[in-house]
Amino acid sequence: MKRFSFAAALLAATVLSGAASAKTLVYCSEGSPEGFDPALYTAGTTFDASSRPVYNRLVEFTPGTTQIEPGLAESWEVSDDGLEYTFKLRPGVKFQSTDFFTPSRDMNADDVLYSFERQLKADNPWNQYVAGAAWEYFNGMGMPDLIKSIEKVDDMTVKFTLNKPEAPFLANLGMDFASIMSKEYADKLEADGKMDQLNQMPLGTGPFEFVNYQQDAVIRYRANEDYWKGKEAIDDLVFAITTDAAVRLQKLQAGECHIFPYPNAADVESMKSNADLTVMEQEGLNVAYLAYNTTQAPFDKTEVRKALNMAINKQAIVDAVFQGAATPAKNPIPPTMWSYNDAIQDDPYDPEAAKKMLEEAGVTDLKMKVWAMPVARPYMLNARRAAELIQSDLAAVGVEAEIVSYEWAEYLSRSKEKDRDGAVMLGWTGDNGDPDNFLHTLLGCDAVGGNNRAQWCNEEFDGLVNKAKTTTDKDERTKLYEQAQEVFKREAPWATIDHSLVVMPMRKEVQGYVMSPLGQHSFSGVDLAE
């Protein structure tokens, strides 16, 4: 506690003093990162602290959109058959020089090969540098089956050859797992027997250099003087880890931080009336859900899952947790995403019918666990409160639910276990604007044991989403995804809960911040008014 208190006091002094020699932006983040190698994880909290300040990718998403633009690749060509992607790398891009490593060369094709081959090849020495590394995103998206080879054409040219066409492949390369690492840095860590430091002391080509991390308290970065887009206006970036939304608001009002995510819904109107604050809002490309473990009885029965869905009053959750700033969800993709099937009828809230259905399925005196996230997320601001409402709803149909939770990293890890009990509350914000990023990434057979927390592998559903991945015609892809949503609704591996409005409060002096429809929190291009 003393260490945390000292860090908080130092942080406040830094912000309030307004040191003339440097601009420091403080972001009150909602949780701690699991690590600093973005390819190992899937949580937005971790990506905010790792890939977005420190790294770049071959292609990037234009701020505020789901459109891609050149990143570390200045151009690319795609073969007529859609099987070959050739990237021309941007010359003169420098890796960061930090207190722990000074690079001797610019970014080149070797770095791109290293960044992907460590995930692709089981015999790569970096494939298991973190014990049990699952490369959850890479594997869950079927990349090992998709990528036939990655070749270095020359120092500044890389060619990906695919086994089949993949419509969202280019957009996928703009995602965090595709961040480009320094092979030279990795080689030095391997030679020194310190490979684990890659996940603790990151080094990339991005706008901010990692300085240090005081666990569960503060992460410090400084502007990359040699950033290929030009040095940022902000000299220092600080993540002040503050898990309680009420405390985050107090810090914002006191000037101890400049911006924070996921405020309590009840506080939004008062923030809007505060002349010192700006409150941005945007429809979220997100969904919150309760994933049943469909491999465990009685959740292996569709009729049991449907009955439990009918017992849950989603509108009550939206009203209590979001003060109405969300809508009940009926599909696994948000209504703002193309291919959303609005013709689907949601399961009605009908406790009596739910109770009868459970009895007909032979389920009586059911006891189960409902998992509640320990942190606020854009799609679920207060998981504990939502779980309490679900617990009450289930009790009304004769189901005894125990609410369980764990520290965030442990929660994410345990919730992937194939023998996990009960139903886990989680959610998703789209990472690339494509329905595949929801339907295949969260519900495909490739993602079982990873992002597919329902452990649900349905051949009909999987066939539809995999066919859609290989189809370039958007109208045809839309039809396939609409059919896949019908299968999802019929089989009910989740209880879909809500799609939320995303709110970002900040102090008036913050300039240039752009909200991302992909839920990213990036501070490149942000400045503070004098």
Automatic annotation (TrEMBL):
It is found in: Periplasm. It holds the Pfam family SBP_bac_5. InterPro entries: Peptide/Ni-bd, SBP_5, SBP_5_dom. Keywords: Signal. Its main location: periplasm. The keyword Signal applies. Residues 1-22 form the signal peptide. The keyword Signal applies. Transmembrane segments: none annotated. Residues 67-447 form the Solute-binding protein family domain. Belongs to the bacterial solute-binding protein 5 family. This is ABC transporter substrate-binding protein. It comes from Aquibium pacificus. The lineage of its organism: Bacteria, Pseudomonadati, Pseudomonadota, Alphaproteobacteria, Hyphomicrobiales.
